[in-house]
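Q: Sequence in, structure out?
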Amino acid sequence: MTLRQVNAGWMYRMAAALLCLMSASAASFAQTEEGGEGAYALDFLTIGVGARAAGMGNAHTALAEDATAAYWNPAGLAGIESRAFAAQHGDMFQQSDGFPLGRGLAQYNYLGAAMPFEGGVLSISWMRLGVDDIPRVTFIDVNGDGILGTFRDLNQNGVKDDGEAYIDDPVVAETFSNSDDAFAASYARRLTERFSAGGSLKIFRQSLFNYTGAGAGFDLGATYRISGRLKAGLTLQDMFGSRVKWNTPTRPTFVKKMNARLGLAGQWPMGRMFEAAAAADIHLNDSFQRSEDGGSRLHIGAELTVLKTVSFRAGLDAGDFTAGAGARVPIDGAELYADYAFMTHPDLGDAQRISLSGTF
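A: Exactly. Output:
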């Protein structure tokens, strides 16, 4: 297959998405010496999981009590009373010239399962952010000059400008993937009627072209029920500094520093038909959406549920608007939740997220 058979615009957008995903690692490599701390190390861990959370501006530290709590606040797992699961697929880097609900250039997935165990709740989970089917381009030396990539330099400036065709035949030699993976084992238990605590041990694997990195980290979380309808939560993510070591020639090790999420959430009935929920998180050292001064970020969201079946959501994720909806489906004593969220981002492009979760 030649490049003339490949949509050039699609390839350029794919390359742009890859550059966005690589920027965190590239910034770390550029700014950090061996053994130092990368300013953007493991930033994919700060994106958030679950369509319900995304629709509410990623304000979920005190609200999560399902299988996504392993990410948001492991202490929230203590609210699970039976077996639970959560699955998510997200499309990131939506393009303005395409169908708004179409496939994004990057895919973001999550799987989690939880069950009661030894007086508490045990959970395992996996998350992945990646760009697949990235073309690696090479050339066939058509004119036999021994130089790959020869083109018709019409204006003799030595740079390939628009309208200057290749003499050599460009071809897609192969495709590859760029990915970031995290695996977590979590445990939580209720210590008193109001107070719960939990922790997550995380293992990471990152790939960047021919290089890979691996490491580990730990999260600690707590929740406190202030009243019957109001709850507070605190998560210390990467509590001891999460480290990832790369297999590059210099084998650098980068460290994601500890950051904290402090949340407050409430749920209230509104007559017989409606129930409302609201949540707010303060995220300190939120590097994925880092401000110039490296300050904190505010996440707020609200949810309205009708007849305990259909929910509508909106929020602000560090100033970016989010919205979503979901439905609850009871099935033979089990409960299934289907949720959708749409997120805006002025720089990276819009994103969407679909998730299924439930208890049984």
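The mean pLDDT is 83.
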